[in-house]
Design a protein that fits this description.
Layout: E1 11-14, E2 18-21, H1 22-25, E3 31-35, H2 42-54, H3 56-61, E4 65-70, H4 74-84, E5 89-92, H5 97-102, E6 105-107, H6 110-118, H7 123-127, E7 133-135, E8 138-142, E9 148-153, H8 163-178
Parallel strand pairs: 3-4, 4-5
Antiparallel strand pairs: 1-2, 1-5, 3-8, 6-7, 8-9
Length: 179
């Protein structure tokens, strides 16, 4: 996935069990997807509240919709939204379908799988997916025409895109539209 790519229709499932099709997300403006691992991920529990405070309000003012996306099943993913009282959408990417299409998935290596299994909480059980796959931390901005306007993928699960960078990408969409 890269800037300029057309995004084929997709549907995510919001944790409150409502479908989020791409066309509905784009109805009022650009959509910003923040891919993260799962509700118990330490880095995610720092990043998502930070995005709630420093990104979500600015995106609302710009008419953009923010969606946090994880492969974790909705009934387990809801916990992070409730714990942090997140004021943006949190959704499941069932079977990592969108993450796979975007090419942003990685799989636990053998040593990590062994450690996870030995801990008594294999990651596939924690997420409810039964797999070892996760999306890399990723921020994607999709313009109303359905094309990628910004994409940032980090191979390091601890590194996230700064809110100011995402906000600037959304502002650039508005500036192009006004020109």
């Amino acid at each position: 996935m890269k800037v300029g790519d057309a995004v084929e229709p997709f549907e995510l499932m919001e944790v409150d069990v409502r479908p989020l099709p791409l066309d509905a997300l784009l109805k009022n403006g650009p959509v910003v997807l923040i891919f993260f691992r799962f509700a118990g991920c330490p880095a995610c529990n720092i990043a998502l509240p930070y995005y709630d405070q420093h990104l979500a309000p600015a995106l609302r003012r710009l008419g953009a919709t923010l969606v946090g996306v994880s492969p974790q099943v909705p009934e387990r993913l809801r916990e992070i939204k409730e714990r942090h009282k997140l004021d943006f959408l949190i959704a499941t990417d069932a079977d990592n379908a969108l993450g796979r299409r975007f090419g942003i998935l990685y799989s636990f290596d053998e040593a990590s799988r062994r450690l996870s299994s030995e801990s008594g909480s294999p990651i596939g059980e924690v997420t409810g997916t039964g797999t070892w796959e996760f999306p890399m931390p990723t921020a994607v901005v999709i313009g109303q025409a359905g094309t990628v306007r910004f994409a940032d993928v980090s191979p390091d699960w601890l590194v996230r895109t700064e809110p100011a960078v995402i906000i600037e990408a959304v502002r650039a969409i508005a500036a192009r539209a006004a020109a």
